[in-house]
Amino acid sequence: MTESIAAAVSATGIRKAFADKTVLRGVDLDMTPGSITAILGPSGCGKTTLLRILAGFEDPDSGTVRIAGDTVAGAGVSVPVHRRRVGLMPQEGALFPHLSVGENVAFGLNRADRRRADAEVAHWLGVVGLDGLAGARPHEISGGQQQRVALARALAARPRVLLLDEPFAALDSGLRTRVREDIAAILRDAGTTAILVTHDQAEALSLADSVALLLGGAVAQQDTPARLYGLPATLTNARFLGSTVEIDATADAGRVRTALGTFAAKLPVPDGPAVAVLRPEQMHLGADGSGTAARVTAQRFYGADTVVHLELSDGTALRMRSAGLPGFGDGSSVTVQVVGDVLAYPSPAGGQRMSLGEAGG
Question: Distance between CA 168 and CA 148 in Å, rounded?
Fold first, then answer.
């Protein structure tokens, strides 16, 4: 019952405008069969519009969508939603409150063969770990269980592609982490091609095989999570994908000179004024030893980590994250050690740098 019918999906040159507002500006995407692709971007960047075009609820103004090599949207082509064999798991799960869990999963199945439909329901409830709950009503189960029912219902229809529109946004943070990990494992076991829309960087990076960063209605970069986070193509991408510590720098022949030392650049950068970008995990505080001397000027505790405000001997001010409570009081003399190569980009107009935590969480 679990044979894969996963399909490749591609979108080429997708453009869409509503009245005088352009939402999508030539979006290109590629998704391989059986993979999970995250479309990551801030609110208003066009994520949901793109998902609706892939599903068939909207037609693009121009561009082409292909599923399993078949053109489903493009010049003179608009395959209806029900013929695309695309499943949709919306943000709230959208279960029918008057139907039981089993009846929700069976919705859309061919009920003429009752025994087969019942077997399908039992199978998919087992896959999502909800055996024995077929007779329950949606209000009798938890939010996480409701999301699993919505997933079982979507998978029972055996879609070629499953679209997930911010499916974990309504769950509290602890439950959200558990449910999304479980659902990702279920999708991989089922071999389903899945496209996840999210504004949550951690969600996209931890769940997806490929992440497409959508900014300003266009794909700024698509790559594996590790490469996207580790090698963002632009300073804007780096800022959105995670916390940054940014330092004025000078680039010269692939080396980057900063107040914290001179480092190799991870990506090619033109010689001249630059911004060096460090990730929090690259920076370590110590009471003495190797590194750059600094003074602690302030601290803010967040539980799992602490944001430490530092001043270097040349007056450079930095903010960095340190795991837990670092154990240094305000005014303490410390050393800052940087591990690994750094990202560097040409200095933006006006030389504006962003502080830790202003972008990407």
Answer: 11
Query: In a 3-state reduction of DSSP, which class is residue 129?
Result: coil
CA dist., res. 197 & res. 219, Å (int): 13
Q: Which fold has domain 9-231?
A: Rossmann fold (3.40.50)
Domain ranges of the chain: 9-231, 243-346
Please tell me the distance from the alpha carbon of residue 303 to that of residue 307, in angstroms, as a whole number. Answer: 10
With tokens 């959105």, the residue in question is: 240
What tens-digit pLDDT sequence spans the chain (361 residues)?
444 466 799 999 999 999 989 999 999 999 999 999 999 999 989 999 999 999 999 999 999 999 999 999 999 999 999 899 998 887 766 889 999 999 999 987 776 677 888 898 999 999 888 988 999 999 999 888 888 898 889 888 888 899 999 888 877 777 788 888 888 888 898 888 999 999 999 999 999 999 999 999 999 999 999 999 999 999 999 999 999 999 999 999 999 999 999 999 999 999 999 999 999 899 999 887 788 999 999 999 988 889 999 999 999 999 998 888 888 889 999 999 999 999 999 998 645 555 554 434 3
Q: What class has domain 243-346? A: mainly beta
Strands 62-67 and 77-78: unpaired
